[in-house]
Amino acid sequence: MKNMSHPNNTLLLGIDLGTSRTMMMSSRGTKAVTHSVVGYPKDIIGVKLMGRSHVIGEEALQRQSYLDLHYPLEDGVLKEANDQAAEAAKLLIKNMINEANPQPGDRICGVVGVPARASLFNKNQLLKITGELMSLSMVVSEPFMVAYQIGKLNNAIIIDIGAGTTDICAMKGIIPGMEEQVTVLKAGNYIDFVLKNLIIDKYPNVQFTKHLARKIKEDYAFVGEAEEVIELELRIDGKPVKSDITEELRVACETIVAEIVEHLQTLIMVFDPEDQSEALKNIYLTGGGAAIKGIEEMIMNQMKEYGEVLVQCVADPDYSGSAGALKLASELPPEYWEQVGQVTGS
Description:
- The protein has three domains: 10-144 and 319-345, Nucleotidyltransferase, domain 5 (2-Layer Sandwich); 148-186 and 256-313, ATPase, nucleotide binding domain (Nucleotidyltransferase, domain 5), CATH 3.30.420; 188-254, Nucleotidyltransferase, domain 5 (2-Layer Sandwich).
- Helices cover 36% and strands 26% of the residues.
- The protein contains twelve helices and 19 strands.
- The protein has a six-stranded mixed β-sheet. A five-stranded mixed β-sheet has the order 13-12-11-17-18, with helices on both faces.
- The two termini are 21 Å apart.
């Protein structure tokens, strides 16, 4: 429900700004997702083909043969001291605002998610950009937004497996501080990197890109026992060849699990002893990595010495962060925003 502290002409936005994809939900019911990439023509032919100075998201990937692609986010945060990244990030956020179909005279207020341990410098970089595009904006921890969305604000742990980072956050009934949050630089992009190298090692003459690795991961990712053999046509010496990549995909996906478990074992200690059993039964996965088959069971199995452990995926892992940001923006009066995150505007 929209808080009465917001004027009627207020357009509220929840934005989950990710390394690979950016999601947006608005108070007027619109939602959108785009790849976090901006493409610029390499030369005048590209300008002629596009008829404009840049393209964003899926269109940029489709036209990449004649574009320079810029990913403004690296490991989940804006690339520091990089003017091109700042420009690309501004275009990306402006595109998401336009997807919400703002009307003349709208007061645009947005909550934007960042990785759990993003630096103050990086948050200020982002606020400088959003300050030019919105009347009021706030940056908050992405796993906290998910916790707010699913109503698990006490004795719970959120694991947000994105592209650039895996964020783990212990919820103790308060705004989480640095000691309750961990950011791990092994996530979806790391899986893509490992998968690409493993496949090239197995099939030396294969033509294989990181974009193809990501597509395979998104379609087939799993850990543990394989339910089926994953055999795909890959181009080897220019020819299509059926190739078994089952073991390579399993190994690549499992590379992120050990550090998740290690940090879970550390974070559980921030809870009072009498609350640890409850927290272990309230572990929630979100982000693109939540779709990896078998990951809940593998984490539970590797945590079994801590007692009863329950790991489950949130209902809508892709949009849970942006939905939580929108819910926070809707329910929290603007005068309290500074108590939750860094804010710019009024």
